[in-house]
Amino acid sequence: MQSNGPPYGGYPGANAMPQTPMMSQQQQQQQQQQPLYHPAQHATSPPAASYSPAGSIPPGASHLHTSPMHASPMHASPMHASPMQAPPMQAPPMGLPGMPGMTATTAGPAALGPPPTGGYAAYPEGHPSHQLPRNVTYQQSVRGLSGWNDPPSAIAGGAGLKAAAAVVPGGRGIDPPAVFAQLRKRYPDQEPRGFVMRELHDALARIKEAAAAPASRERFTPQMDRQIADTERRQEALIDILAGEGVTDLCLANLVRFAMGLRERQWDEAQQAATALAVGSQTSQFEGGQWIVGIKRLMELMRTYSTS
Q1: Which GO CC terms are listed, alphabetically (predicted)?
Q2: Inter-axis angle of helices 192-212 and 176-186, to 10 degrees?
Q3: 307-to-190, 209, 213, 220, 290 alpha-carbon distances in Å
């Protein structure tokens, strides 16, 4: 038996008609196929802490009752834009070179001025030598220092050695023939090369004798023994140089002065000669001047530890 009440679980529709025995079976089927009526539900805003993408509709809300917080991104204010939304388009900076449609507004580097035409001033303004000729090198402009930093090949001759010895105390005005004549006057029948080699050998022998004496063993430490051995090695290199033909008269004259200072205990004369040799030894023929350290150390050992 059919009931005239509403279907189970629903409400009668707005256009629903009560079923009567007179209704045909077709009309009853059409009435049952009509949608059921549901009461309208009001949209509620989600909590503030919840996240909903822009333009989405929360569950249970109708697209006709969208709240202002879930408005379309095209109508949302910038202050309430979604963090997933891309930033608004901005105008590119003007004045960047290399961009299409852009023109550079920054000025390029200033053009370099012409090079200075004056010479290099090695002296302060007001110095008598401040006004130097143009188109000259530094060595040619400074009086007394011409060629002071030339390469060894440029000062291998006697002129370079004379210029180097001229700026050393005790080396100014050295005349090799006069030094050789003084040697023959003090020590007749002495040849310059043989005299230098003999005096260097005798000085080192006296130092070794003093080092071997029992009274001097306390002063000669193992470090001093190594210094004596190194001095002997450097002295042998100098003797080999003297045996050759590449030694200039100026260098030989200073070696004679040094040897006479050792023999006569004239330490100031020997020191001045060693200083002149140190300046003039920066040539390839003197093997980098390694023997200069040897003669200086020989003089110090002679002055401190030699016996009479």
Answers
A1: COPII vesicle coat; endoplasmic reticulum exit site
A2: 60
A3: 25, 9, 10, 14, 27
Give DSSP secondary structure letters for 277-296: HHHHT-SGGGGGGHHHHHHH
Taking 50 as the threshold, does the pLDDT of residue 145 lie above it? no
User: In 176-196, which positions are buried (b, 16+ CB within 10 angstroms) versus exposed (e)?
Assistant: beebbeebeeeeeebebeebb
Give CA–CA dist 305/293, Å, rounded. Answer: 18
CATH tag for 176-305 (out of 1.10.10.10, 1.20.940.10, 3.40.50.10490, 2.40.10.10): 1.20.940.10
Q: pLDDT class for 192, splitting at 50, 70, 90?
A: very high
Instruction: Pick the closest to residue 261 from 277, 280, 239 (CA basis).
Output: 277
Listed in order, strand segments (DSSP E) in the chain are: none
Q: Cβ contacts of residue 25 below 8 Å, gap of 6+?
A: none
CB neighbour list of residue 171: distance below 8 Å, 6 or more residues apart? 164, 165, 254, 272, 275, 276, 279
Of 246, 283, 276, the residue nearest 152 (C-alpha): 283
Residue 168 to residue 84: CA distance in whole angstroms: 84
The model carries a pTM of 0.44
Question: Residue 221 in contact with residue 227, Cβ under 8 Å?
Answer: no
In the chain, what are the domain boundaries? 176-305
3-state secondary structure of 119: coil
Residue 142 makes CB contacts below 8 A (sequence gap 6+) with 122, 129
Burial degree of 169 (CB within 10 A; 0-12, 13-18, 19+): exposed
* C-alpha to C-alpha distance for 233 and 297, rounded to whole angstroms: 12
Q: How far is CA 277 from the centre of its chain?
A: 37
The DSSP result for 92-141, as a single string, is PPS--TTSTT----S--PPPPPPPP-SPP--S-TTSTT-S--SS--HHHH
Q: Round to whole Å and give the CA distance between 32 and 211.
A: 135
